[in-house]
Amino acid sequence: MDAAAYPPAYPHDPIEAITDDVFMVRGSIKLNALMKITRNMAIRRRLRLFDKFCAQSVSKRN
After folding, report:
1. Residue 58 included in any domain
2. Which residues contact 11 (CB under 8 A, 6 or more apart)?
3. Alpha carbon distance 6, 60 (integer Å)
4. Which among 32, 62, 38 has a CA at the least distance from the CA of 23?
5. CB 39 within 8 A of CB 58
6. Which residue in 21, 62, 24, 23 sits closest to 45, CA to CA?
7. What is the pLDDT of residue 16?
8. Separation of alpha carbons 16 and 54, rounded Å
9. Range of the domain at 40
10. Of 8, 39, 58, 59, which has the maximum CB count within 10 A?
11. Considering the domain boundaries, does residue 25 fall inside one?
């Protein structure tokens, strides 16, 4: 799929390991002066594959 089809990666915290195979990413988007949306994504590793829950785009540096 073309990279333009995906939403941009907004600022987020580093990916943190919860256990050996579960990771968490936290971030937020400021919509206007009064509204901010908090975003969380859980990632589970299974046999070298990754499942994402509540997926968000993450930057390549993480």
Report:
1. no
2. 27, 28
3. 14
4. 62
5. no
6. 21
7. 93
8. 16
9. 3-53
10. 58
11. yes
Strands (DSSP E) found in 1-62: 16-19, 22-30, 36-46, 49-53
Residue 59 lies in a domain: no
- Write down the pTM of the prediction: 0.62
Residue 29 lies in a domain: yes
SS3 (DSSP) at 3: helix
Q: Tokens 């590793």 identify what position? A: 45
Structure tokens at 5: 């089809």
Q: How far apart are CA 24 and CA 44, in angstroms?
A: 9
Number of domains in the chain: 1
What Rg, from alpha-carbon coordinates, does the chain have? 13
pLDDT tens track for 3-46:
677 777 778 889 899 998 888 888 888 888 899 888 888 888 87
